[in-house]
Amino acid sequence: MRIKRVAAVAAVAALALGLTACGGDDGGDTGAGSKSFTAGTTMEKLNKAQKIKVGTKFDQPGFGLKGLSGKPEGFDVEIAKIIVKELGIPEDKIEWVEAPSKVREDVIVNGTVDLVAATYTINDKRKERIAFAGPYYEAGQNILVKKDDTTITGPDSFKDGTKKVCSVTGSTPAETIKQYVKDVGTQLVLFDTYDKCRDALKGGQVDAVTTDNVILLGYIAKDEASFKLAGSNFTKEPYGIGVKKEDADFRSFINDTLDKAVSDGSWKKAWDDTAGKFGAELGSAPTINRY
Ligand code: GLU
Predict the structure, then answer these.
(1) Atom number in ligand 1 closest to CA 170
(2) pLDDT at site 20
(3) Which residues, 6+ apart, have CB-to-CB distance to 49 below 8 Å?
(4) Which atom of ligand 1 is nearest to the CA of 121?
(5) Is ligand 1 within 6 A of the CB of residue 219?
(6) Does 166 contact ligand 1 (Cβ within 6 A)?
(7) Global pTM?
(8) How far apart, in Å, are the Cα atoms of 128 and each of 124, 125, 166?
(9) What CATH number should be reported for the domain holding residue 189?
(10) Residue 173 Cβ < 6 Å to ligand 1
(11) Do residues 116 and 145 both lie within one domain?
(12) CA angle, corner 49, sides to 99 and 26, nearest 5?
């Protein structure tokens, strides 16, 4: 009788162990499904769905550029892939959604995407609508001019009111440059994406493009004969991953993932494989702001 009971207990225990093993591994030979997350979290929801929508740029060499492969490539894209891998989702299950500067908060708030990785400066105004994990990089605003230009040497060059400068609607550089131009109405030209500004500079419709140095360095790398930077960075642009404002668990998970990426070398590798080829400095990893 006693022996029977022991055997029964052992059988139940074995069954429980078996179930645990199954629950902890959804199968899949990539290992992608082998993560488990607290029920009810965004991480669990995404992992269960085995797919994710990521907002990024499609027109920024080195950070997010959609080329012939049909998939965007760049540092932001690689950072997003690191996060997606940590969620246990295979890379080919990422749906890449173009997220130009102006729409980034909107696509997070309305759920068009699950996260945004798109040269996205962390600031208080944006934090009123969304939340940021990170920073994972710090860029700075600069100015792109034609290679033979000697008249524009920094943002003060716009103060005399004669030069036109292009930037992107909804970006921090578009706001910052307003403090330097004499007449916003005639001098500041705004498009929805930076590649349009680059084309306007090349075509002579504007005298300069202003945004983060790393975006401009990407354009220079693709067309060294035409462009150069005018002067030094004049702002600090810490890049964060945008998520829903109320989703503290997801933000914390991404922060942990970024910390891990720095310590295991995947952050540096992501840089070296992408924007690092275009002459920008990676520097040391910025301290994550767990606000
Ligand atoms: N980092 C700046 C921003 O978030 C400029 C780059 C961009 O527009 O994506 O506004």
Answers:
(1) 10
(2) 36
(3) none
(4) 4
(5) no
(6) no
(7) 0.89
(8) 7, 6, 27
(9) 3.40.190.10
(10) yes
(11) no
(12) 135
Residues 244, 120 share a domain: yes
Q: How many angstroms separate the CA atoms of 33 and 35, rounded?
A: 6
- Asked if pLDDT for residue 32 goes beyond 60, the answer is no
Spatial separation of the C-alpha atoms in residues 241 and 263, rounded to whole Å:
18
CB-neighbour burial class of residue 131 (10 A; exposed 0-12, middle 13-18, buried 19+) = buried
Task: Kindly state the tokens that stand for 271.
Answer: 């840089």
Please work out whether the CB of residue 142 comes within 6 Å of at least one atom of ligand 1.
no
For residue 272, the CA-to-ligand 1 centroid distance in Å is 21
- 171 Cβ below 6 A of ligand 1: yes
- Closest of 149, 142, 188 to residue 280, by C-alpha: 142
Least confident of 30-39, 191-200, 220-229, 261-270: 30-39
Q: How many whole angstroms from 265 Cα to the centroid of ligand 1?
A: 26
Residue 225 burial (10 A CB sphere; 0-12, 13-18, 19+):
exposed
Q: Are strands 52-56 and 94-98 parallel, antiparallel or unpaired?
A: parallel
Q: Quick one: which atom of ligand 1 is closest to the CA of 215? A: 6
Average per-residue pLDDT for the chain:
91
| 120 Cβ inside 6 Å of ligand 1 | yes
Q: Residue 44 Cα, ligand 1 centroid: separation in angstroms?
A: 30
Q: Whose CA is nearest to atom 6 of ligand 1?
A: 119
Residues 253 and 122 in one domain: yes
Which residue's CA is the closest to the ligand 1 atom numbered 8? Answer: 171
For the CA of 168, the nearest atom of ligand 1:
8
**Residue type at 48 in one-letter notation:** K
Residue 188, domain extent: 141-229
- Looking at the 3D structure of the chain, how many domains does it have? 2
The label of the residue with tokens 């246990």 reads 88
